[in-house]
Amino acid sequence: MRVDPYPLGTQSKARSRRVMENLARPRVEQHVPRYYFNVCCDRFEATDVVGEYCRDQGAAHQEALRAARAIVRKQLLAEDLPQHGWIEVEDERHETILRVPLRSVAY
Asked: Alpha carbon 56 to chain centroid distance?
């Protein structure tokens, strides 16, 4: 037989109190920056106009590596891997902060 550790009605009152305390607490808004991942190679350039929110430059680098792996995997299956290709990561001011060569993830 299961015994309820809370007397009837006290669980919902405690939960309501926690909810009200959380609502009364001031919220600190943190700005999560947007990064743009442009794909460049010998034959074309694809500009990212939407971007992705990443918590910092390290997370943007990880996202660029993930995207590069996906591109390389797709191009290897099509046997059409460009000789010189990279993903250029731009910050919110559209300034290039890093460049990830596609070949760097192929090994």
From this structure: 9
Nearest to 31 by CA among 53, 51, 60, 63: 53
- Candidates 51, 11, 17; CA nearest to 34 is 51
> Is-above-0.90 flag for pTM?
no
CA separation for the pair 6, 105 (Å, rounded): 55
Distance of alpha carbon 38 from its chain centroid, rounded?
Answer: 15
* Contact status, residue 40 vs residue 88, Cβ threshold 8 Å: yes
Sorted by sequence, the CB contacts under 8 Å of residue 62 that are 6+ apart come out as: none
Q: Supply φ then ψ for residue 83, to 5 degrees.
A: -70, -40
Retrieve residue 21's tokens.
Answer: 């305390």
Cα-Cα-Cα-Cα dihedral sign, residues 4, 10, 16, 21: negative
Residues 6+ apart with CB under 8 A from 51: 34, 35, 36, 37
What is the tens place of the pLDDT at every residue in 31-47?
899 999 999 988 789 99
